[in-house]
Amino acid sequence: MTLRLKSNVFAILAVSIVAIFSCLIFAQSAKKFTLDEMDFPLVAKATSESGRPVYYRGEESPEHLGLYHPPLYIYALAGHIKLFGFSENTVRSFGLICTLITAYLSILIIKELVQEKYLGLSSLAFLALYLTNPYTLANTTLPDIDSTILPPLITLFILLLIRDSKKIALGGVFGLLLWAKLTTPLALIPLAISYWKISKHSIQEIGNRAVIIFGSGIVLFVATYWIYCKVADLSFSYAFTFLVHSFTKGSGTSGIEQVPAKILQNLNYSSAFFASITPPFLLLFVATLTSESIDKNGTFARIRVLLLMYFAAGVTLFYCGLIAPFGGFFKYPFAVFQLACIGISIVTARWISNFVYNRSEQPKKLQIATLCFVGLIFWYVTIHFADDLDLHFNRQPAYIPLLIILAGILVGLILRFTKNRENAPSTVASITFAAVVGITLSVSRYDAILPTSTKYDRGQSGMDETVSYLKSQMKKDEVIWSMKDVGYYTGNRYVENYLTFFRPNAKEKLEELTKSGVRFFVATQGIGEDRIDAYPEVRKALENCCYLDKNFGNFYIYAAKK
Length: 562
Prior knowledge:
It contains 24 helices and 7 strands. The protein is mainly α and 562 residues long. Helix 4 packs parallel to helix 7 and helix 21 crosses helix 22. The N and C termini lie far apart (65 Å). The relative contact order is 0.09.
C-alpha cells in the first residue's frame, strides 16, 4: 500500500498507521446503532434473507421499501452479512474495508500527481491525515452510502479520469455510481469538464467526452435499474420521489427569495461538521489551499491538485448549505473528504521533504524521529485535556495550553534545525503537520472509547439501560411506542414515536395506543430527536395518559395509567 516508499522507516510508519486506524475502528464497532444508523443494516439483513430490499420499520410500515437510493450499497452490505452474519461489528467491518480501499485508490491518485521523490512522503502524509482523523473514524463506523460505498467509487472515477482511461470505463463507473446514489455523483460532471479544460482539450472534444461518458453512464443506469425493478417487482419511481422530497425537506423553504437566507442559516447550523474534522485540520486545509492558489508558478500537476481541493470544498459547502434536518450534513461531504486529504498531503510533502532530507538523498532519522515525537507530544497533551476538548474543541479555553505548547515546540525546533532562513518554512510546516496529526489522532481515540454515539445525537446516554429495563418488563408480542433504535433493540414490535411529534392529534393518538394495550412509551430529554422537552403539547398529552416509570440518562420511560 505504500507504493515504492524509499525507506523501510516509511513502510513501517505506514503499516503502523493502518494498524492504529483498524484498532480505533474495532474499539467502537460494537456500539449500538442510533437513529438512522438502523435503516441500512436492517434492510441489508432483510435483503440477505429474501433478496428484496423490504424490511420491518414499525407497526405503521411493517413492509417498508428501503429504496431511499438505488440499492448498490444494500446488496453489497447484504452480501457481506450473508458471509459473516449480522451484528454491529460485521456491518461496521464493511465500512472498514471501504475506507481502506478508498485510501489505496487515493494513493494511486497521488502517484499520478507527484514526482517520484515526493511519492513516499505524500503517501505517508495522506495515510496519517486521512486514517487518524475523527471524521474518518466516525464515517467508517456509520452504515450509510456516503460513508462506505460512495468514497471508493468516486475515488476510482477520479483515478481513471486522471489516467485518461477509456471512455467506456469511465461511463461504466459513472453508471455504477448512480446505482449507489443519484446526487453526489452528478458533481463529477463539472469536475471532469474542468479537468479536461485545464488539460487543454478543445471545446468540441470536451463536449463529445461528456456526452459519451456521462450519457452512457446514465443510460446504463436507467436501463439496468428499470429491469431490476421489474424483475424484483419494486417501484421504479420511489428512489426519485424520495430524492425530490429530501431536497424539499433539506432546503426548508418554498419561496425562491428565501433560499439565500436559508442557506446561510444552514451553514451556521452545520458548524458542527467543521468541528467534527477538528479545527487544526481545517486550518491546515485552508493554509495549503491558499498557498497553492497564490503560487504564480503553478505547474499542471499543481493545478490538478488545486482542482481536487476546490472540488472537495465545493461539495462540502453545498451539502452544508442545503441540509439541516438530523444533522445530515455530517455524512454527505465524506464522499470527497479523501480529496481534501490528498491535496493537503501533496502540498505539505514538499515542505516535509525539505525538512527530512535537507539536501541529502537519504532521509535523516533525527528529523523523522522529531516529527514522530511532536505528534506524540500533541497526542498526549490533547488526551490530558480531553475533558475540555469534548465535542471536538467546542470549549475554547482548551486552545490556550495547546497554543502555548505549540509555540514553545516550534521555537525550540526552529532554533535547532534552522541554520538559514530557507529552512524555516519547511521546519514550521513539518512541525505543524505533525502537531495536527497528533491532535486529530487523540480526538479519534477519545471518540472511540466513548460509550455514547459520536454521530447522531452525540453524547446521548441511557439507551443500554433503557433497553435492558424494557426487556425485563415486556412480553414477547407487546408493542412499544419509541424511536426505531430502542424499538429494534427491545426485540418487540414498535410504533415509531417520532411521527407523533408532527401530528396535530398527538393526544388522540397516544390515548388510542393506551386503549389498544400499549403499556410503555419512550421519549428523550436534553439530547434526542424525540425530545418531549422541545414539544410541550406532546409532553402534556403523554403525562395525561401515562406516568413516569423510569429514567436512564436522556431516556424517559412512561407507563400507561391503569
